[in-house]
Amino acid sequence: MTTIQSRRKLIVIILLCMAVTGALMRHYAERGTTTRDIGTLLMVLWVPIIGNVIAWLIGKRPRRAAPAEPATFDAARAFTPHLLAELTLRPPALPSHDVPLAAGEYRCALVVDNQGFSARWFVAQGEVLARGKPHALDIELLSPTLAGTRFPKGAAFRVLVGDSFIADGRVLQLRATPV
After folding, report:
1. Is the model's pTM score more than 0.90?
2. Mutual angle of helices 47-60 and 3-28, in 10-degree steps
3. Using one digit for the tens of pLDDT, what is the confidence trace for 93-137?
């Protein structure tokens, strides 16, 4: 037990003893006397400790397990395109960031109305995606069963990375039928 815990325990015991003493004083004192009033005051001193005792009991309760990690794309799983989409990258806020997207994997959220769906796409080695021009890309959805109805052919969406919309898109073709 730490020093703070032992001090708290001692304070609780002292205040509990004072409350019991106050109850006894109040029980044996005549009505309307100062002794009875002092006994009532000693009993009232116990009230602030009740909150601490309740907090201690809540702290002793078993805790729930930590929430599960959010679903993400498995690095070992092969890329399975669910739709072919036309993406047009928006110009960045800073002119110095106006560079094409290099080869690699890109993860994002495809936003339709106010719903977002996790997705990823790849830019092949040796290729770059220039900003402001439409590009046809295969896109894999993290949860194709949930997102499938929101992305019919011709559906428009926005691409969200972090807290910025970086592109606008349109579904050209469905590749794999969601299960």
Report:
1. no
2. 140
3. 788 878 888 888 888 999 998 889 999 988 888 888 888 889 999
Is the Cα torsion angle 166, 151, 83, 139 positive or negative in sign? positive
Task: Copy the structure tokens of residue 77.
Answer: 């799983």
Q: What does the block give as tokens for 148?
A: 């499938």
The CA dihedral of 70, 71, 72, 76, to the nearest 10 degrees, is 130
Cα 88 to Cα 158: distance, rounded to the nearest angstrom: 10
Residue 167, beta-bridge partner list: 89, 159
Ranges of residues in the chain whose predicted pLDDT is under 70: 67-70, 75-76, 176-179
**pLDDT the model gives residue 4:** 80
Q: Count Cβ neighbours within 10 Å for each residue of 5-30 and write b for 16 or more, e otherwise.
A: eeeeeeeeeebeeebeebeebbeebe
